[in-house]
Amino acid sequence: MRHLIDIMDLSTTEIDDMIRVAKDIIAEPAKYSHICSGKKLATLFFEPSTRTRLSFEAAMYELGGNVLGFSEAQSSSAAKGESVADTIRTVGAYADIIAMRHPKEGAPVVASAKSTVPVINAGDGGHNHPTQTLTDLLTISREKGRLNNMTVGLCGDLKFGRTVHSLITAMSRYENVRFVLISPDELRIPEYLKYEVMVKKGLDFIETTDLEGAMPELDILYMTRVQRERFFNEQDYLRLKDSYILTPDKLTNAKEDLSILHPLPRVNEISVAVDDDPRARYFEQVRNGKFIRMALILKLLEDAK
User: Is 101 an annotated catalytic residue?
Assistant: First the structure.
């Protein structure tokens, strides 16, 4: 039984193969429109989501399958005190594959240990978000034609940003990827990630608070929001939430082929005036999420046979 809990559960060969399948789905959608006929995906979202949940549902429908599940914990038996393990055992009797989002880090690990069907981590607290990472990798591959030999800037909340943590971990396995980590001092990348993933692997990276100063060298700019839901102190959130706001004037010295990504939702960190810039690729990134999740569902169902 294969699950996807952490992006490191997949080899680079598997990731590259899923990107190839996703690109084939984009090119020939009709070829895949009935491939999951008779299969059911359960979406168990204990935490609010728009893009991730709907993209999973759209992915399964476009593969010819069906979807069941819930979009908030209060509409499930979790509100009555049911454990994650019991919920997963129950849902596994109804569905062929499960996508689960949970506010508690590690909850998908517990779920996968008890599940009789493949479990996909659709985000657990500030820890991991592997399917967003697959989305990011597909987007970068489509934009640049490669996943190596580039400089990636990550800007905003690097402390709690699970999308950032997963993307750094994934791209650390590709050759000659340099990271520019742009954040307020209070939201710097966690020490464990810096040393376990970056220092130990000898990756080329710098930490800075200066977005505009870093801009000219970037091939990818990955913006993130400061996440109110991860803060224990409202005053800290209010002080830090607008640390970086990307506006057209800040792109003056950026490369012409820069790709601007964002896992969304955005708040204020990218001005709507940037949306018309051809380098803004975050809505195309959303679309790519559906295709890579289609490829992932196919892979895990195939491996479960």
Answer: yes
**Pair of tokens at residue 10:** 């997949």
Q: Which of 13, 59, 20 is nearest to 297 (CA)?
A: 59
> Does residue 20 carry a catalytic annotation?
no
Alpha helices by DSSP H, 196-262: 211-214, 234-240
The string of pLDDT tens digits covering residues 239-268 is 555 567 899 999 999 999 999 999 988 888
Q: Is 209 a catalytic residue?
A: no
How far apart are the C-alpha atoms of 57 and 99, rounded to whole Å? 10
Q: Among residues 3, 40, 52, 293, which one is catalytic? A: 52
Q: In the beta sheet, which residues pair with residue 154?
A: 181, 222
Average pLDDT over residues 43-65: 92
Long-range contacts (CB closer than 8 Å, 24 or more residues apart) made by 225-232:
225/156, 225/157, 225/262, 225/265, 225/266, 225/267, 225/269, 226/156, 226/157, 226/187, 226/267, 226/269, 227/126, 227/157, 227/160, 227/161, 230/126, 230/157, 230/160
- Residue 115 CA, distance from chain mean position: 23
**Phi/psi of residue 178, each to 5°?**
-105, 140
- Exactly one of 101, 102, 127, 262 is catalytic; which is it? 101
Cα 251 to Cα 258: distance, rounded to the nearest angstrom:
9
Query: Which of helix, strand or coil describes residue 221?
Result: strand
Three-class SS of residue 42?
A: strand
pTM, to two decimals: 0.91
